[in-house]
Amino acid sequence: MLVVATGVFEILHPGHIRYLERSRELGDRLVVIVARDKTAQKRKRRPVIDEKQRLHMVASLKPVDEAVLGDPEDFFATIKRIAPDILSIGPDQDFDEEELSGQFDERGIGAKIVRIGDYWDSGLHSTKIIVDLIKKQ
């Protein structure tokens, strides 16, 4: 089974590793779509680390079989091209599974959507937590 995971991966942290490990456990191969700078800026904020460097970091991680940059205009285009069996989404990613499933149906994407249930109970498991902690220093 081919699994796709997505994210910005601005500051790699334990939550990212857990998400990718859990995603990899869902299938035989894990492809990670790294959000483009333009996409990240629309959804969250302007990345400090550029997309090519983020792609390189993610591609070097043990659970990842392949990492690719997402389509700069259409989130679904890259997923459709890869044609995964499963799309995994992290516990803090703001996707609505029903809405996402409807978008998949409209675009002829047959992937099952699986939300990874947890990162860590405590600790530095999100970029926001890490950035807020740095700001307090």
Number of domains: 1
Query: How many strands in all?
Result: 5
Largest sheet: 5 strands, parallel
- Helix and strand succession? EHEHHEHEHEH
CATH topology: Rossmann fold
Mean pLDDT: 88
Coarse morphology: globular
The name of the CATH architecture is: 3-Layer(aba) Sandwich
Task: Report the structural category.
Answer: alpha/beta
Number of helices: 6
Evaluate the radius of gyration: 14 Å
Distance from first to last alpha carbon: 44 Å
The helicity comes to 40-55%
Unreliable residue stretches: none
- Please report which band the strand proportion falls in: under 5%, 5-15%, 15-25%, 25-35%, 35-45% or over 45%: 15-25%
> What is the name of the CATH class?
Alpha Beta
Fourth CATH level, the homologous superfamily: HUPs
Question: What is the topology, as strand order, of the major beta sheet?
Answer: 3-2-1-4-5
Question: What is shown here, in short?
Answer:
The chain is α/β, with parallel strands linked by helices. Helices cover 41% and strands 18% of the residues.
